[in-house]
Amino acid sequence: MKRILHEKELEKGDFLLFLYDREVLLSRSLYNRGGLTFDYGLVTEASFGEVLVKWFFDPCEDADAEGIPEVIDNVCAFKGKLYLIKKDVPTHF
């Protein structure tokens, strides 16, 4: 697993793991409600400086807060850590 620090490191077919920062989860009371603390995503497009990701869950969706955006344009602003799990995963589904 490789930590992603900038969206320029991502390519189409990259399978990602996103771990929410503990502070975000505590502020949204997800721990108390048994909510998820992570998300998986698949990069479906990475061209012309734009990275599109299809996220499989949205752990913060039920907390009336914004989840992880589908367009990644500033990894540093994410409130958590992004990791590359696998490359070259098929994106047609």
Structural class: mainly beta
Unreliable parts: 59-65
The helix/strand order is EEHEEEE
Could you tell me how far the N terminus lies from the C terminus, measured between alpha carbons in angstroms? 24 Å
Strand order of the largest sheet: 1-6-2-3-4-5
For the biggest sheet, the summary is: 6 strands, antiparallel
* Number of E strands: 6
Q: What Rg do the Cα atoms give?
A: 13 Å
Number of helices: 1
- The total domain count is 1
What is the overall shape?
globular
Beta-strand content estimate: 35-45%
**Arithmetic mean of pLDDT:** 79
Helix content: under 10%
Provide a compact summary of the structure.
The chain has one helix at residues 22-27, and strands spanning 2-4, 15-20, 38-47, 50-55, 71-72, 80-86. The protein is mainly β and 93 residues long. The two termini are 24 Å apart.
Task: Name some characteristics of this structure.
single chain; 93 residues; mainly beta; six-stranded antiparallel β-sheet; 6% helix; globular
Description:
- The protein has 93 residues and is mainly beta.
- It has one domain.
- Helices cover 6% and strands 37% of the residues.
- The chain has 1 helix and 6 strands, in the order E-E-H-E-E-E-E.
- It has a 6-stranded antiparallel β-sheet with strand order 1-6-2-3-4-5.
- Strand 3 and strand 4 form a beta hairpin.
- The longest helix is centred in the N-terminal third of the chain and has 6 residues.
- The chain is globular and about 35 Å long.
- About 8% of the residues have low confidence.
